Amino acid sequence: MTDEDYPTDDPAVVTCGLPYPTGDLHIGHLRTYVSGDAFSRGLQKLGQETVFVSGTDMHGTPIAVQAIQEGVEPLELGLDRHEQYAETFPQFNVEFDNYGHTDEETNVELTKEFVRAWESNDHVYEKEIQVAYDPDADQWLPDRYVEGTCPYCGEHARGDECDEGCQRHLEPGEIEEPVSTITGNSAEYHERTHKFLRLSDFQEYLEGFINRMEGTNNAKNQPREWIEGGLEDFCITRDLDWGIDYPGEGGEDLVLYVWVDAPIEYVASTKQYSERVGSETFDWESVWKDGDGELVHVIGRDIIQHHTVFWPSMLAGADYAEPRAVCATGFVNIDGKGLSTSKNRAIWAEEYLDEGFHPDLLRYYLATASGFERDVNFSWERFAQRVNTELADAVGNFAYRALLFANRNFGGTPQDAALSDEVETEIVQAMDDYENALNDYDLRTAGERAVALARFGNEYIQRNEPWKLDDDEAAPVIRDCVQLVKAVAVLLQPFLPEKADDLWSQLGEDGSAEDATIADCLQAPPAEFGEPEELFEKVEDERVEDLDETLQTKIEAASSGEDDEADVTDEDDGSTELEPLTEDRISFEDFQDLDLRVGEVVSAEGIEGADDLARLEVDIGHEVRQIVAGIKQLHDLDALPETKVVVVANMEQSELFGVESNGMVLAAGDDADLLTTHEDSEPGTKVL
């Protein structure tokens, strides 16, 4: 791993969190896999050698529980779903270089090697712990066989995760008021001997790792309270029949916890790819063992702790390389509420395809609808708006009118005209912005920058009006426009693989847009190409009304069972719609009552036990104030000192999570964009 900007000389491995084979895929799942695929393709555009891998998570209690409910063996259930997923992902142009599953021999053997390495390095020990037990069923209750109350936040939780509250990983015996999911009866706690990975061995290592790690702010900031607050050791075994048998002594009747073998599938899938193409082409050991690679994990934000605490410890304990970056996507909500498979509050992958929409349209929407870590609030109206305005009106309209004029008047690219300085500068700036966005793990900006280049093209052709010029005068304009079309095709390919290929073919280019790199944005287009076709069809208003009516029916049906368990908790609305202006007005005198001051952040730290809150020390000139702000997961707190902010200095004092707050820091929008000053105003300066 390096800390150099992409592209680096070392190959990259991009992974996506493994799906459980317990249900059909919906657009919430697809957001993670589309984002991983788009980022992988984006790195390749920069010239970075990149391998994209994942697999199906076959083990653990979710599969075991569902298999019992359906009267089949867990392996049969898992393999059926695995094959379904392997067929569904390519339908959305999510193309893994290798897609395996955790019950394959490669992963089983690698997992056992990891555990033996931990034992050899003295990181594993035995301990008697309290494990839930159902006396009526005469069965131990690991993980999702038991539910109860989270000991940290008091919300309803599953046995291994507080899925409805603080989202913390829960160890066996931690859940309070345990209830068996098999019989519905209260469970009992009994002592059992289990194996633990001693996370305390990695305390100092993890404190350094979390500062080195790149990725999204939520992935970098959320684990700090767990790491800095002292690590609890990780129980790596379960009382279960389904999984990988513990390979060492004293674990003959135990299997490994699913979160042991699941992330090791990243290594196993890479190894399978290496074995398929040959180690001369790609050496998995060089990347994973020697550290000569860039490891990037794209996951849902509900499994941040597993990838930033457990996984790096597992790697370090077995002498493997650490990840360079962890990127955690937000959820996809419908009507402001989390998706629920049990209540059919979802838009299923198959359902989307059955509507006849091209998969690239959903890819673009999911990858660019909001920032990587922010939620997307899906509606067919927003989907149609972005397809119509950004893809049809901007990209499609510009490409069609430019290539049609070029074909009819010049048979292709005018050959006697050079690329203008204005357009070359615009393309170079787009390339730089695109590269910077990918290095910031910012897919939204990368995709929108490509669309902005098409908008520039539309403005450029409209401004120069080549249809009013003779051929000699029109040739330089059209030469510029064809070059812009080619650059747009290259930059949009990670988001719109099929549509970009269509555009590439319309340009008369050889090969595929997939093989083009960012440098090809400035390579001269072919001299000849045929008449183009429209790339995108607009989504009509009537169609949107029908789709939203169907969706609303689903939501209303789901609302009748609001007490049912949802798959994800409701989160902030991640849409980009503006809130309506308030009708209530205040007087100038009321406004003057606000004492707004320029402040300078002196220090910033997360508040232990609070997911979103941070404690700031802010210099407001007359004094340094302690202020609590809900920015913990939205900003790199270590980078905030010396940042200028605007403070409501005469806000009443309050207490949040046991911490006194003396003022309010102003911020805009769901991303908490901190308000600051254009010039270098001194702390304490009054804002008028």
From TrEMBL:
Enzyme Commission identifier(s): 6.1.1.10
A single GO molecular function term of this UniProt record: metal ion binding
Residue ranges of domain TRNA-binding in the record: 590-688
Lineage: superkingdom: Archaea
InterPro entries: aa-tRNA-synth_I_CS, Anticodon_Met, Met-tRNA-synth_bsu_C, Met-tRNA_ligase_1, Met-tRNA_synth, Methionyl/Leucyl_tRNA_Synth, MetRS_core, MetRS_Zn
Catalytic activity, as annotated: tRNA(Met) + L-methionine + ATP = L-methionyl-tRNA(Met) + AMP + diphosphate
Cofactor: binding details: Binds 1 zinc ion per subunit.
Keywords: Aminoacyl-tRNA synthetase, ATP-binding, Cytoplasm, Ligase, Metal-binding, Nucleotide-binding, Protein biosynthesis, RNA-binding, tRNA-binding, Zinc
Tagged with keyword tRNA processing: no
Biased segments, Acidic residues type: 561-576
Motif 'HIGH' region per UniProt: ranges: 19-29
Signal peptide: none
Residues noted as binding ATP in the record, renumbered to the chain: T341
Residues where Zn(2+) binds: C150, C153, C162, C166
Pfam families: Anticodon_3, tRNA-synt_1g, tRNA_bind
Function recorded in the entry: Is required not only for elongation of protein synthesis but also for the initiation of all mRNA translation through initiator tRNA(fMet) aminoacylation.
Complex and partners: Homodimer.
Family of this protein: Belongs to the class-I aminoacyl-tRNA synthetase family. MetG type 1 subfamily.
Protein name from the UniProt record: Methionine--tRNA ligase
Naturally occurring in which organism (per UniProt): Halobacterium jilantaiense
Gene responsible for this protein: metG
